[in-house]
């Protein structure tokens, strides 16, 4: 018998404050978690063409306002409340000029 390491696969797990993930929200999938709690897994195709998944209470709340197919920029803001990872979520607006 031996220990097997569990890999995070294609899940984006930020390590540094300010770390960013930019791409297009491709689709979302509802999942059953521990104790029959539901959560949503969001699939983002990055600008490098990789598919990454993100989840979590803060991201679920903020990404619920984003339509599939929209360009998003997620920025890791740390754990200010101690329990949850916090993120800034921005969408790209073709109408507005970039500053």
Please give a handful of descriptors for the protein shown.
5 strands; single chain; 7% helix; globular; mainly beta
What does this structure look like?
This protein is mainly beta. The chain has one domain: Nucleic acid-binding proteins (OB fold (Dihydrolipoamide Acetyltransferase, E2P)). Helix content is 7%, strand content 40%. It has a five-stranded antiparallel beta sheet, with helices on one face. A hairpin with a 7-residue loop joins strand 4 (71-78) and strand 5. It starts with 19 loop residues before the first strand and ends in an 8-residue tail after the last strand.
Give the overall shape, derived from the CA principal axes: globular
CATH homologous superfamily name?
A: Nucleic acid-binding proteins
Average pLDDT:
84
Span between N and C termini?
A: 57 Å
Total tally of structural domains: 1
Contiguous low-pLDDT stretches (5 residues minimum) are: none
Radius of gyration: 15 Å
Number of strands: 5
Q: Judging by the overall fold, what is the CATH architecture? A: Beta Barrel
Beta-strand percent range: 35-45%
The CATH class is Mainly Beta
Question: Helix content range of the residues, please?
Answer: under 10%
Number of helices: 1
Give me the strand/helix succession: EEEHEE
CATH fold name? OB fold (Dihydrolipoamide Acetyltransferase, E2P)
Q: Strand order, biggest sheet?
A: 3-2-1-4-5
By secondary-structure content and strand pairing, the structural class works out as: mainly beta
